[in-house]
């Protein structure tokens, strides 16, 4: 592989230590971003673009900003019109998304593909990756939009703040370098896998858009990635995708790609459409997608949450029940102090049931089928 790393080995050693130097060189040689990220879960001595961990590959500048954070900027005379964030490992045990990001990065480092749009790759929670858990202390995907400020110190609190800063710098840089915002379109695909089975294996959560219409072209893009079940968000949240959508008008989705499996046990062929379409997007190639048609989708709108109020909360949904399972009208789904939840609408379905949440938190999201006009 040919890339002109601008620092000598000695300079690198001075910045981050000999162990880092060796690991970084290994990354340059192999493109193995997972290993580098896992080896330095807490980060490096020097972070941000000033750390000078940049190299050129196939007419793009690649900068390692921090552990799990890799920026790729095309060295083009034409201004790129898209800024794209592709994130994984916001939940550390969700390995398929990590392997998708790994695939894209190794293809870039090996010069198999040429990136034409600014792209920020993220492996969100290296500490949780190393312990093969969803998170160490707090669910990182509830901590964005400043919600990290409200919790006690822990790794996820620190990491949420960092991720917000990197994403914000990334989108703002494109804005600063162009005359008006409208010249650059922002994108953020936050890739996950789900804890339980799903009636629809792959699905995406489209963050709440306020008064803005749902973007049918984006829905078609999701379908072309193999994701034709879409759940429309019903209000502001602390998720990573909502953060980019609300603050930077990014086309943004939380994408659930199937069930959680350990490293090495994912059938990557199952994710080839996603990997290929993301590659086409960052390389400015034709996106093979059809015009939007309701009949090609399972669309759901959120009705609201079943919230656990007290320790007396009981949920009548088994651990083996799939996401998007629907119940007949009048079915009792939960009881709590002085209250119960019964379904009231045809097709009413459950998503993300979890009785083990804390008091005041969502135990189930209730959804119902919908179509777009
Ligand atoms: Zn997840």
Describe this structure as you would to a colleague.
It is a single chain. This protein is an alpha/beta fold and 373 residues long. Helix content is 27%, strand content 24%. The protein contains 9 helices and 15 strands. The protein has helices at residues 9-16, 18-30, 33-39, 95-109, 126-130, 155-177, 216-224, 240-248, 272-282; strands at residues 54-57, 60-66, 69-74, 82-88, 118-123, 185-194, 203-206, 229-232, 251-259, 298-307, 314-315, 332-336, 339-342, 349-351, 362-370. The chain has a 12-stranded mixed β-sheet, with helices on both faces. β12 (332-336) and β13 form a beta hairpin. α1 (9-16) packs across α2 (18-30), α2 (18-30) runs antiparallel to α3 and α6 runs parallel beside α8. The N and C termini lie far apart (51 Å). Residues 1-6 have low confidence and may be disordered. Bound molecules: zinc ion (ZN). The site of zinc ion has 3 residues, from loops.
Largest sheet: 12 strands, mixed
Radius of gyration from CA coordinates: 21 Å
- Would you list the SSEs in sequence order as H and E? HHHEEEEHEHHEEHEHEHEEEEEE
Order of strands across the biggest sheet? 1-2-3-5-4-6-9-7-8-10-15-14
Overall shape: it is globular
- Structure ligands: zinc ion
Overall residue-averaged pLDDT value: 91
- Estimate percent helicity: 25-40%
Poorly predicted ranges: 1-6
Number of helices: 9
Into which percentage range does the β-strand content fall?
Answer: 15-25%
């Amino acid at each position: 592989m040919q890339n002109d790393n601008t620092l000598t080995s000695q300079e690198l050693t001075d910045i981050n230590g000999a162990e880092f130097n060796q690991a970084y060189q290994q990354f340059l040689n192999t493109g193995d971003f997972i290993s580098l990220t896992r080896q330095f879960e807490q980060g490096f001595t020097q972070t941000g673009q000033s750390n000078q961990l940049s190299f050129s590959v196939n007419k793009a500048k690649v900068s390692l900003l921090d552990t799990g954070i890799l920026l790729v900027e095309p060295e083009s005379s034409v201004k790129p019109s898209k800024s794209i964030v592709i994130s994984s490992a916001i939940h550390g045990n969700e390995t398929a998304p990590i392997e998708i990001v790994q695939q894209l990065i190794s293809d870039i480092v090996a010069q198999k593909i040429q990136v034409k749009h600014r792209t920020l790759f993220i492996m969100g929670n290296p500490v949780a990756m190393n312990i093969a858990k969803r998170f160490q202390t707090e669910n990182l995907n509830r901590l964005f939009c400043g919600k990290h400020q409200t919790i006690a110190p822990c790794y996820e609190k620190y990491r949420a703040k960092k991720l917000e800063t990197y994403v914000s710098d990334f989108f703002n840089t494109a804005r600063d370098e162009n005359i008006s915002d409208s010249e650059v379109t922002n994108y953020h695909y936050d890739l996950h896998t789900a804890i339980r089975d799903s009636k629809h294996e792959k699905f995406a959560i489209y963050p709440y858009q306020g008064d803005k219409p749902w973007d049918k072209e984006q829905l078609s893009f999701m379908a072309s990635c193999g994701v034709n079940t879409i759940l429309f968000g019903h209000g502001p949240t602390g998720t990573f995708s909502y953060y980019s959508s609300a603050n930077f008008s990014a086309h943004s989705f939380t994408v659930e790609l199937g069930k959680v499996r350990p490293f090495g046990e994912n059938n990557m062929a199952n994710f080839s459409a996603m990997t290929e379409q993301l590659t086409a997007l960052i390389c400015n190639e034709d996106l093979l997608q059809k015009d939007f048609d309701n009949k090609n989708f399972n669309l759901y709108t959120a009705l609201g949450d079943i919230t656990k109020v007290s320790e007396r909360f009981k949920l009548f949904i088994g651990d083996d029940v799939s996401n998007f399972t629907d119940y007949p009208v009048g079915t009792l789904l939960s009881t709590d102090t002085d209250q119960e939840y019964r379904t009231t609408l045809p097709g009413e379905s459950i998503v993300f049931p979890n009785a083990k949440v804390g008091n005041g938190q969502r135990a189930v999201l209730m959804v119902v089928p919908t179509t777009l006009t």
